[in-house]
């Protein structure tokens, strides 16, 4: 008997054939009925839709049917028939029901519909069973596939950059240390410091905050590359937009200037949104209907217009003239807060914005310095409801300027010497950016909190499941 998934049954009904025998397996969403018949809504995760299983009570052992409750896992053999009921075109007339795993109705926490996101965060092991989380995880998968497809079609090479590193790419000191030293009794140098020479790697190491530096090294040989991997930041930011472990897509391109960089970033985001609309319309429709009535319209609106491009300096002028009361006051040189970014995107321009040429004091050491001596060729892409979704720049390709910048920041030149070498041997103008995968997922799904777009979130004080 054909073992089928619900997605295929609904999509390929004609090929499978009404009246034919099928076998399905899945989890019971709801069960209702009367003395004569039970209607079981079964979901197997292959799509948002449930398949209705109709069981004539006279044909089944009552003891088994009693255990077919919300959350239980069952296997059904039966006949595929047209459905008389509302809400579905086909259903299964059950001939055999095998109970694979029961779920005690007194204890299974997902009994009713409409649990809050906060409640679902407390049951990370079971929330994938909800409609909402099924949509998010299928969309997350679709976006990952789309990212690889996009770059593959453009002949970018996917580079696996290391997770463990000695370099702090962003220079913000937000690294999770990696060590096998005995924390209670570490070896010490004669000066009394921890002796990292005796650590596993013979030096101080941490989890990477970004694959960019290694990415640049490969771009200086392969031209166009990208990374897509987990990154880690020990920043104690308890916000709806920050995770301690998040995924980042980082393309790096030789011979791209800042304008080429912006073009690629805008094209990538639009491609991903279009891909979601084309491939996951059922999931998006569900999220639109149940969670965010403006989701589809917001996704489509981003496709229709070019992103606004302006300099940081111009943005500061707009903010200062806005008469808006900001919690963090605005002046040239300050780092933009989420409230400022959202004002520009949601109140002033009403579309995504790319800001360029930030003050060098608030940006990382690797950014190309402008001739004004004050700004660097940075670009941040700001999105409605999210704020910064992409951070990137043209890179400093001049050896002397890069070295001077590193010294000015009192960074460890020794740790960066491989990176610096790329400017010594065949340096080339190049650019790149980092797209935060969970920030992208916030936009695609309409969710409000990054904890709800990653299967098992890692945030301060939480690495539970
Ligand atoms: O702006 P960021 O720090 O830039 C970099 O890491 C560069 N090395 C990227 C590059 O040029 N290759 O981070 C890039 C993006 C942000 O715009 C944001 O979308 C996301 O990564 N991001 C976070 N997402 C979730 N939680 C956090 N704590 C994040 N920090 C940054
Ligand atoms: Mg940034």
Give a written overview of the molecule.
By secondary structure, the protein is an alpha+beta fold. The protein has helices at residues 6-11, 13-16, 62-65, 117-121, 131-153, 212-222, 258-279, 281-290, 295-304, 312-321, 338-349, 399-408, 417-424, 437-445; strands at 2-3, 21-33, 37-43, 51-56, 73-82, 90-101, 157-158, 164-165, 177-178, 205-207, 224-232, 245-254, 308-311, 353-359, 375-383, 387-394, 430-436. The strands form three sheets. The protein has an eight-stranded mixed β-sheet. Strands 2-3-4-6-5 form a five-stranded mixed β-barrel. Helix 5 packs across helix 8 (281-290). The longest helix has 23 residues, at 131-153. The chain binds 4-amino-1,4-dioxobutan-2-aminium adenosine-5'-monophosphate and magnesium ion. Residues 169-170, 210, 212, 233, 235, 242-243, 246, 248, 250, 388-392, 432-434, 436, 438-439, 450 line the site of 4-amino-1,4-dioxobutan-2-aminium adenosine-5'-monophosphate (4AD).
């Amino acid at each position: 008997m054909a073992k089928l998934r619900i997605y295929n049954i609904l999509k390929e009904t004609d090929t499978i054939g009404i009246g034919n025998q099928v076998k399905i397996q899945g989890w019971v969403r709801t069960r209702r009925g009367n003395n004569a018949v039970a209607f079981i809504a079964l979901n197997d995760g292959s799509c948002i839709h449930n398949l209705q299983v109709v069981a004539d009570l006279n044909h089944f052992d009552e003891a088994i049917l009693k255990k077919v409750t919300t959350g239980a896992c069952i296997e059904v053999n039966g006949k595929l028939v047209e459905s008389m009921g509302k809400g579905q075109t086909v259903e299964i007339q059950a001939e055999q029901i095998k109970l694979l795993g029961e779920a005690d109705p007194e204890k299974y926490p997902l009994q009713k519909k409409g649990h809050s996101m906060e409640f679902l965060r407390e049951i990370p092991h079971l929330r994938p069973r909800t409609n909402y989380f099924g949509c998010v995880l299928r969309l997350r998968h679709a976006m990952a596939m789309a990212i690889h497809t996009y770059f593959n079609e453009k002949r970018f090479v996917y580079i696996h950059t290391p997770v463990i590193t000695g370099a702090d790419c962003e220079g913000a000191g937000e690294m999770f240390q990696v060590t096998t030293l005995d924390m209670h009794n570490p070896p010490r140098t004669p000066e009394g410091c921890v002796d990292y020479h005796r650590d596993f790697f013979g030096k101080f190491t941490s989890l990477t905050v970004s694959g960019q530096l290694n990415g640049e090294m490969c771009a200086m040989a392969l031209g166009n590359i990208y990374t897509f991997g987990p990154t880690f930041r020990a920043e104690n930011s308890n916000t709806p937009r920050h995770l301690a472990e998040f995924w980042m897509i980082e393309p790096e391109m030789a011979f791209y200037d800042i304008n080429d960089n912006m073009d690629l970033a805008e094209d990538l985001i639009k491609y991903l949104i279009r891909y979601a609309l084309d491939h996951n319309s059922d999931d998006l429709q569900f999220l639109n209907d149940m969670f965010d009535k403006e989701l589809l319209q917001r996704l489509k609106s981003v496709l229709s217009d070019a992103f606004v491009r302006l300099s940081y300096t111009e943005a500061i002028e707009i903010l200062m003239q806005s008469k808006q009361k900001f919690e963090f006051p605005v002046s040239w040189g300050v780092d933009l807060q989420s409230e400022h970014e959202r004002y520009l995107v949601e109140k002033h321009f009403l579309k995504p914005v790319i800001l360029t040429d930030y003050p060098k004091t608030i940006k990382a050491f690797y950014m190309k310095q402008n001739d004004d001596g004050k700004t660097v060729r940075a670009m941040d892409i700001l999105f409605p409801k999210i704020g910064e979704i992409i951070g990137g720049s043209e890179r400093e390709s001049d050896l002397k300027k890069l070295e001077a910048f590193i010294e000015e920041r009192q960074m460890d030149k020794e740790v960066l010497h491989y990176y610096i070498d790329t400017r010594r041997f065949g340096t080339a103008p190049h650019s790149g950016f980092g797209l935060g995968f969970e920030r992208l997922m916030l936009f695609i799904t309409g969710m409000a909190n990054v904890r709800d777009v990653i299967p098992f979130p890692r945030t301060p004080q939480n690495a539970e499941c």
